[in-house]
Amino acid sequence: MPQTLTDAPLDQLFRQARTYNAFSGEVSDDTLRQLYDLLKWGPTTSNSCPARFVFVKSAEAKARLGPALDEGNYRKTMAAPATVIVAYDLAFYEKLPVLFPHTDARSWFDTKPEADLTTIALRNGSLQGAYLILAARALGLDCGPMSGFDNAQVDAAFFAGTSLRSNFLVNLGHGDPGSIFARSPRLGFDEVCRIE
Amino acid sequence: MPQTLTDAPLDQLFRQARTYNAFSGEVSDDTLRQLYDLLKWGPTTSNSCPARFVFVKSAEAKARLGPALDEGNYRKTMAAPATVIVAYDLAFYEKLPVLFPHTDARSWFDTKPEADLTTIALRNGSLQGAYLILAARALGLDCGPMSGFDNAQVDAAFFAGTSLRSNFLVNLGHGDPGSIFARSPRLGFDEVCRIE
C-alpha cells in the first residue's frame, strides 16, 4: 500500500513550488521527452488524452508566439528557455481506437456537438496541463503558467486548419528567486470545502 | 535548485498509479484537510482558485448523489470511502480581494459574460482537480475520477440556488488491485508533441 511521501517531495511539488517570472538554464529535448513520459500517465475521461503540446524553444517560434501575448507576459516568455503551448484536440475521439481499444469508445463522442466536445477537451486537457506542471516540478524544473494571451491568435499562428485549440501557456526553466514576490494567500478549508 | 525526484515518488504519482474501480479503508476528515492543504498551493489564473470541493462520505449524501450517476459508476461510488464532487464557483472573482490583494483583480472578471467565466472556471477548476488527484496519490490514497454522471442533477442536489457548478467526481480510498485491468495505452511523444 502506498505511503505518504516525505516532506521533501511534497515541498517540491506543492508547498514550496512557486510561479516564477524569470528563468535560466536550458531545457533539453531529452528533458521534454521525460516530461511527457511522466505526464502521459495521468487519468482522463475514457483515457481520451486530448491534450497536445507544442514546446516553443527556437527564436523563430518565439517570434510567432510573441504578438499574441499580453504585455505583462511578453518579456518573460521571450526570455524563457522553453514555453509550452498546452492545447487540446477537438477531434480527440479519433485516437480512441488506440487509447480505449476494448470497445467502440469513438462512437460515444464523434456525434457530439462542438460545444460538448469543447467542454470535454477543456476539462481533460486542463487536467493534463496540471499533470505537466507537477511532472515538470517533479523533474526539478520550475513553471510559469499563463492564460494572459489571445487564444485565437495563437491558434492562427500554430494550429491553422486543424482541430487543435490553445488552452494555456507554461514557461519552463530554473526559476529565479528574485523574480517572485511574497506568496499570495489561499482560502481556508472551510471556505471552499464541505464534508457531507 | 530542485532535483529530479527519485523513482519511488515518480512511480507513486504517475507511472504506477491507476484509476481503481473498488476501494477499501477509511478516509478521515483529517486526511481530507491534509489533502486540501497540499492541493491549494497549485497555480491558477490570477490565483483565482475557483474550485470548490464536497467530500461525500455519509449514507445520506451518497443517496443524494446516487441517482445522478451513470449505471457503470453507481455501485463503485456508493461503496467508496469518500467521493469528491470537484466543482467550481462561477462567482470566483468575489474572493479576489483576498486572493490577489495587491490590485483590483476583481474588476478583470466581474463584468465578463457567463460563457467566459465558465471557460475560466472550468480551466482552472480542472487544474485544481488534477492537483487533488496527485495530492491524494502523494498522501498514499488511490483515486477513481469520473465524468460519467448528470452534472445538472448533481448541481440541483448539492448546489441549488448558488453559483457553484459540478465539474467531475473522484472516488477516494485504498484501491483494490483486483478491480483494474491491464493498463490502457498512451500516445507516443511524436503523436502529441512537437518541439519548435
From TrEMBL, chains A, B:
Its cofactor is FMN. Its EC number is 1.-.-.-. Residues 27-158 form the Nitroreductase domain. It is an enzyme of class 1 (oxidoreductase). Gene3D superfamilies: NADH Oxidase (3.40.109.10). GO terms for molecular function: oxidoreductase activity. Keywords: Flavoprotein, FMN, NAD, NADP, Oxidoreductase. InterPro entries: Nitroreductase, Nitroreductase-like, Nitroreductase_HadB/RutE, RutE-like. Belongs to the nitroreductase family. HadB/RutE subfamily. This is Putative NADH dehydrogenase/NAD(P)H nitroreductase IP90_00370. It comes from Luteimonas cucumeris.
